[in-house]
């Protein structure tokens, strides 16, 4: 006896089912991650380094008011001091600012005010840059309050020679008293 052959029937896919399958495929495609190119921008700046700065101090010997000539620079009081920069890294120049205009003497504006508690009247302090050989000049090179002085930093340590001198104001005679000034030295590095 023969066995009956099974009947296999292939039915066409209904249009709704085909459309559903097509939509499912399209949705899967739409959910794939989007791609785009981008750019990372990196910016920065290398600034000048700094130096270690000493804290110079000038201590004058006592001078008799009778030995001070009238008007101007008191030569016997001239003292050299050094501003020293060391451990300079990444520095090619420095700009020093000596105090501010508020530090100026009210009569001799090119000199610094004597701020002692019991000041010697009619005395101010004259600050100068030393000359090329490191000596204190008798005139010129004045470092007025609030002004700047630029120096080249060509090694990891430099010395900037300066001078401090008593100055007899033009409005009176110096008499007994103390002398003091604390000048803020601002330094900007390049």
Question: What layout of secondary structure does this protein have?
Answer:
Elements: H1 15-30, E1 52-53, E2 72-86, E3 93-98, E4 123-129, E5 148-152, E6 158-168, E7 185-189
Antiparallel strand pairs: 1-2, 2-6, 3-5, 3-7, 4-6
Helical content class: under 10%
Global Rg: 41 Å
Number of strands: 7
Number of helices: 1
Strand content: 25-35%
Describe the structure using short key phrases.
4-stranded antiparallel β-sheet; mainly beta; Immunoglobulin-like; 8% helix; 7 strands; 1 helix; 3-stranded antiparallel β-sheet; 190 residues; 27% strand
Explain this structure to me?
It is a single chain. The chain is mainly beta. It has a domain at 74-189: Immunoglobulin-like (Sandwich), CATH 2.60.40.1090. The chain is 8% helix and 27% strand. The protein has 1 helix and 7 strands. The protein has a 4-stranded antiparallel sheet, with no helix packed on it. The protein has a 3-stranded antiparallel sheet with strand order 5-3-7, with no helix packed on it. The radius of gyration is 41 Å and the shape is elongated. The model has no long low-confidence stretch (mean pLDDT 86).
């Amino acid at each position: 006896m023969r066995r009956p052959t099974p009947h296999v029937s292939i039915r066409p896919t209904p249009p709704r089912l085909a459309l559903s399958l097509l939509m499912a495929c399209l949705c899967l495609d739409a959910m794939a991650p989007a791609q785009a190119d981008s750019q990372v921008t990196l910016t920065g700046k290398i600034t000048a380094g700094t130096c270690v700065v000493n804290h110079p101090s000038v201590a004058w010997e006592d001078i008799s008011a009778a030995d001070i000539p009238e008007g101007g620079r008191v030569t016997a009081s001239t003292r050299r001091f050094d501003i020293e920069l060391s451990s300079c890294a990444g520095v090619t120049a420095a700009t020093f600012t000596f105090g501010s205009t508020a530090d100026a003497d009210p009569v001799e504006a090119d000199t610094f005010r004597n701020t002692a508690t019991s000041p010697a009247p009619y005395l101010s302090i004259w600050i100068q840059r030393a000359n090329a050989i490191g000596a204190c000049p008798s005139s010129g090179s004045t470092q007025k309050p609030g002004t700047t002085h630029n120096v080249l930093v060509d090694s990891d340590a430099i010395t900037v020679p300066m001078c401090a001198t008593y100055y007899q104001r033009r409005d009176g005679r110096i008499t007994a008293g103390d002398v003091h000034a604390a000048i803020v030295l601002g330094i900007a590095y390049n």
